[in-house]
From TrEMBL:
It comes from the Bacteria. Pfam families: YjdM, Zn_Ribbon_YjdM. This is Alkylphosphonate utilization protein. The gene is phnA. Belongs to the YjdM family. Residues 47-112 form the Protein YjdM C-terminal domain. InterPro entries: YjdM, YjdM_C, YjdM_N. SUPFAM superfamilies: Prokaryotic SH3-related domain, Zinc beta-ribbon. Residues 3-32 form the Protein YjdM N-terminal domain. Gene3D superfamilies: 2.20.25.10, SH3 Domains.
């Protein structure tokens, strides 16, 4: 028996496959089986602002000023961030930014060096 993934919306374990899609009977969410297989095979997939694939350990540059809650100054455009780590979620880059410390960034606001 194959192991089907849990629903990404509600976390239900009662998913089933129907014509190349995974379906959740509890919330009705449908998602592509090929995307799920690709994520499982490759880990987290993230693309920068130019569409380049990012990987753990890459160096990136911030492409616009980013306001930071609780900080008096924003992260300036052109700030270099070294040795990123990709994680699941909306803010899919975990890194350390000089002058700000540990931070989570969205991949759409950076470009690969």
């Amino acid at each position: 028996m194959s192991q089907l993934p849990k629903c990404p919306e509600c976390g239900s374990e009662y998913t089933y496959e129907d014509r190349g899609l995974f379906v959740c009977p509890e919330c009705g969410h449908e998602w592509s089986a090929s995307k799920e297989a690709q994520k499982t095979a490759e880990g987290v997939i993230a693309k920068d602002a130019n569409g380049n694939l990012l990987q753990d350990g890459d160096n990136v540059t911030v492409i616009k000023d980013l306001k930071v809650k609780g900080a008096s100054n924003p992260i300036k455009q052109g700030t270099k961030v070294k040795n990123i780590r990709l994680v699941e979620g909306d803010h899919n880059i975990d890194c350390k930014v000089d002058g700000f410390g540990p931070m989570k960034l969205k991949s759409e606001f950076v470009k690969k060096l």
